[in-house]
Amino acid sequence: LGWILEDDVDAADAGLPEEEREPEELDRETYQSVRNLLILLARDGKQPEEIGASAVEGLGWLGGRTEEKAILEEYYARKGARSRAAALIAAGRAGARDWEARVLEHLRERTGPLLLAALKAAASLSLRKAAARVQELCSHSDPEVRNAAILAVPAVLPSGRANRILKSLRKHKDPDTRRMVRSASEILEEEA
């Protein structure tokens, strides 16, 4: 959605790279236009699955109105893992607490897009019930899963436990994992 936001920079964001700036609030007209476009793309059966799934993920940022909730349910009911993953991510972004059981269910998977989506949703929901599984996944053999779990740590685990886990991973052999640990540590520090 960044391409539709105004280019104005808040004084607090001056000097920050564009990707690190706080987004501006959307005015009502822009919000409605974006919402309508995302709904159109999500409902257009002629679009490739990736386009529809990306639109669904975007709807998650806009909240959980009745129509958006229906679209999430529709995508979750589909057979394709990408569509189902998009619904999980969007539900997390929308703060849909009624999706917690589904998120926890997919956190039990061994790998794959639904596990990654569940990690993102658990972080978005600050789902404390997922703490033990997120901690376990921080040592997963798949670096993509491991790094997604590390990024979920600040949101899901209590700060003391999160600090201990991140500290234990600081010298991991994988440089990407070390970078994720630094990012997660920064998030944890900002929230303190």
Walk me through this protein's architecture.
Helix content is 65%, strand content 0%. α2 (49-62) runs parallel beside α4 (81-93), α8 packs antiparallel against α9 and α8 runs parallel beside α10 (175-191). The model is unreliable at 1-16 (pLDDT under 50). The protein starts with 27 loop residues before the first helix and ends with a helix. The protein has helices at residues 28-43, 49-62, 66-77, 81-93, 100-107, 113-124, 131-137, 143-156, 159-169, 175-191. It has ten helices and no strands. It has 192 residues and is mainly alpha-helical.
Topology:
Layout: H1 28-43, H2 49-62, H3 66-77, H4 81-93, H5 100-107, H6 113-124, H7 131-137, H8 143-156, H9 159-169, H10 175-191
Helix pairs in contact: 1-2, 2-3, 2-4, 3-4, 4-6, 5-6, 6-8, 7-8, 8-9, 8-10, 9-10
Radius of gyration from the alpha-carbon trace, in angstroms: 18 Å
Question: Which structural category do the helix and sheet elements fall into?
Answer: mainly alpha
Total beta-strand segments: 0
Shape: globular
Task: Tell me the series of helices and strands, N- to C-terminal.
Answer: HHHHHHHHHH
Percent of residues in beta strands: under 5%
| Termini Cα gap | 29 Å
Number of helices: 10
Q: Which blocks of ≥5 consecutive residues have pLDDT under 50? A: 1-16
Overall mean pLDDT stands at 89
Biggest pleated sheet:
none
Q: How much helix, percentage-wise, in residues?
A: 55-70%
